[in-house]
Structure prediction request, 365 residues.
Amino acid sequence: MHILHVVGARPNFMKAAPMIATLREYGIQQTVVHTGQHYDASMSDVFFEQLGMPAPDVNLAVGSRSHGAQTADVMARFEPVVLDYQPDVVLVYGDVNSTAAAALVCSKLLVPVGHVEAGLRSFDRSMPEEINRIVTDHLADYLFTPSADADVNLMKEGIDSQKIFCVGNVMIDTLVRLLPKAKAITRDDGVFDAPYALVTLHRPANVDDPETLTRLLRAIAMLSRDIRVVFPVHPRTRARMEALPHWNNGGGVTLIDPAGYLDFLALQLHSELVVTDSGGIQEETTYLGVPCITMRPSTERPVTTVVGTNVLTGSDPRRMLAEARRVLAGERKRGSRPPLWDGCTAMRIADVLVASHVERQPVSA
Ligand code: UD1
Prediction:
């Protein structure tokens, strides 16, 4: 059996790493294709190193483009790779442009696709990721879901229940494995020496419009009067901030470069609260029991608000500040860990793939 993995952007790497390690233990032939959607060392290489992933066998080097051009480039460059490597199954991860592009290529070549992190829906089609999720799920042959709500979403869309496997959250496999290393991380810049709130923002809806971004940055500067703020800045956000005519954070916000996996996990662990618009961070904080305020109107990960520590405030700075102050006053939401977020998800996925491969083998006379 030969499995080909497609990764492209930062949030893919921590989902693919445990799959690659587990399938290696099963003795399965594997190929790793990096589309090159993310290419900066701080957005890509550091993750391969810290997650212990093998260097990609193929790098499509698509780089940053408009959505249409980036998706088309992945498709055009990935198709010959599939034809050349002839995998039995292609695994795609999450909801980035590379995910949907690779699924489209495989489905036209009749190569079975497994979607890891299937079934999530924000029900907000203005998010590019929501389009990628819908397209990928409707093309995939195996839908590996992280939670029961995802199964319900897929069934409502008419997807055959035989294709759906509720396996838990594969990103949590990585977290469980690397938590001891993250706990041992130290910093010499003083960030861990006093309480702080950790902030990340990179969604186009929050950072692309200068007025919205200015409003959010002002709110973050206000939060920094109550607690020091540490803000690792995504390249998209950095470019938008630099284009603003004037922004003064008042000195209370420590801007740092995007952090590698272990450093970011350590930053979450030591923080009093996290303010974010990321998807994965909502899940990591839920697992860690750290209060999370998500500056989005909706989430495709409702289990983090129902079971976990996550609260949605939309992009409204006043709601974010009110919620943050509640947390700092000690009224933090107590959450628990969702079922199957236990560090064994990659094994459950591997078992499904191996069993179905055995079933598909012709019976010899
Ligand atoms: C992408 C994903 C998003 C994910 C995020 C995590 C899509 C539609 N979006 O958004 O779901 O949460 O990754 O980071 O796939 N850039 C660099 N260096 C890099 C990569 C990007 O400087 O290594 C800059 C470029 O200016 C680029 C911009 O960031 O134009 C946006 O990159 P892109 O991959 O298009 O989208 P993200 O915002 O990173």
